């Protein structure tokens, strides 16, 4: 075969591949179903700023796996003002309560529950009907009233009394823009609730598209329970997620999922109303929670891989890769460096890393959404797992 024939064959092959990827006739590409998909640049910090601290002993593997298949996708774990619980929101839209013997139904967010919301084999299999069944993500008790505040991904900011039942809606839109992916909240004890709407474009059931797009319509919001007014504190955020008040209530932290950092929003002092970077995280944060000491536990969904880093910086490359007929799951795993693995980090109120615990092999704790510290134990919830993991602090010694 002559050189020119080879060139022609290669050109034809290349063209066919480009055409196939461009047209994707079998709809295998992760963005095939979202015609409006646009990849945004993620302004990542220099690679050298990403923390390198590791838990070489993989201490999270020593966690106890509890309630296997009794709780599907428990994101947030809270204890009530009497210390009872935990309570957790699960994939079928209920908030469950552990009464020390069994799980009972405590509350729900949808007034339209049906057999669509009944038991399914895995947390992800509920995604299709979440907009009907509800999806309670962030949970917080008001310590004075015993009311439970709920950030429901679909129904917005809600509240239910100490006896539970159907939650009532508090906020469904802010400054004229509907909440589309309400994610987490915390309160200052002075009638203010700070909460996040992760996107005004994508709902939670399309969270992979949100992850892949790096889309920046997320908002940090405030609601006053007395005046019933809400307002936008920060907009154009890329997947804002967890929120947690500092112990002295002079600031709160919020997670920015796509960039992978914690930001600090000042409530008191000279810098009140301003925000700044608090810490760069090694991966994609979900929730953050403050312990009794005033330190912050952050749940991190996997260490960012170099693949994810480059994809974040170059949206055109990302779009090209996402057009390839490769399943979404594969792209997701590549971002996570090949396998799901959980990392939890503890920060001081000054932003210093105090502790890193991980299961780098994803053997026991493959994913983590929240870390709640109580009585020397870490309660680890995850939207992706059918259990709660409990880690005994100091079990390292
Ligand atoms: C109520 O649920 C049914 C399915 O069980 C669904 O078809 C309908 O759209 C829902 N109504 C509302 C208002 O969400």
UniProtKB/TrEMBL annotation:
Domain Strictosidine synthase conserved region, first and last residues per copy: 183-270
Molecular function via GO: hydrolase activity
Entry keyword Metal-binding: no
Signal sequence segment: 1-18
Compartments, record wording: Vacuole
UniProt entry keywords in alphabetical sequence: Glycoprotein, Signal, Vacuole
One GO cellular component term: vacuole
SUPFAM superfamilies noted in UniProt: Calcium-dependent phosphotriesterase (SSF63829)
Segments forming a coiled coil: none
PANTHER family xref list: PROTEIN STRICTOSIDINE SYNTHASE-LIKE 3 (PTHR10426:SF106), STRICTOSIDINE SYNTHASE-RELATED (PTHR10426)
Family named by the database record: Belongs to the strictosidine synthase family.
Name listed for the protein in its UniProt record: Strictosidine synthase conserved region domain-containing protein
Organism: Stephania japonica
Lineage per the UniProt record: Eukaryota, Viridiplantae, Streptophyta, Embryophyta, Tracheophyta
